[in-house]
Amino acid sequence: MNIAPDILRSSAPSPYGSGNYIDHTECGDTRHRLWIKRNVDGSIVGYCHNCGSRGYLRKAPFVATDPPVRDWAVKPPIPDADLVRGPEFWPNHARGWLLKYGIEPWELPGVGWWPKGDRLALPVRDFGNALVGHNMRSTDGREPKYLFQGQSSVGHWVRDKDGPLIIVEDILSATKVGRQFDSVALLRTHMSPAVLAKVQKYAHVLIWMDPDRAGWEASAKLVDKLAMFTDAIILHTEEQPKEATDERIKTVVSDNC
Ligand SMILES: [Zn+2]
Asked: Are 124 and 133 in contact (CB under 8 A)?
C-alpha cells in the first residue's frame, strides 16, 4: 500500500531535514507509527511501522501562475508627453527627495515629474529592463505616498551583476543596492508569482525590507516562500536600504554571503 500524497504533503514538518510520527488512520494505527520526513532536498518520505506502507513525494517544480492580464485593466506607462524630464524644471522637493537618498536622476532612466498628479514618476523596469509602468511618488508629504500606472506586479529590476540577488521594497532601494548587486523591488510587501519565477533563478537571495513591522512580517513570509526554491536569508538593519551608504551596503551584503 502506498501512503497517499495528500497525507505526506499535509503532515510533513516544514523545516527541511526534519520528521515526525503521526497516526496512520488508513491502516487503523493509533500509536503514531507513521513516520513522515521532509528531506533536505525538499522531497518527502513516509514509512508506516504498522502496515509497512511507503510513500515518496518529489519536491514539486515551481510553475509560475501569472494571473491573466486583462488588457482593459492595464494602462501603459505614463506617456512621455505627460512627464517633465529635466530635473532643473522639477519642484525643489522632488529633486531634494532623490538627493536625500544620494540618488541622481540619471540613475533612474525614464524618471520624470508628473505635473498632472504633482508627483515624481519613477520608472518600473521588468526583468528584461523594459519600461512597463510608473510608480508615482509624492515628494511633498501628500497621501497616498504611491500611485501606480502600468504594471507593477513584475517588480522593478536592476541587474547585470554576478552574485546574490537582493530583494527590497521600493525603487530607490533597488537603485541604491543595484549599484553593486542585482536587486528587485517588490513594490509591495508580498511577492507576486511573476517575481518569484525570476527570483528562483538566483542561487543566493537576501531579503532586505524596511525596518518596520510591515517589513519584518513580509520578510518572514518571503523567507518561508523562498525556502522551497533557493537559499534565502533575511537582512536586519536599522536603516532602509535606500538610506544606507554604498560602503554600508557592501558590508551588510558581504557579511551575509
Ligand atoms: Zn499504516
From this structure: yes
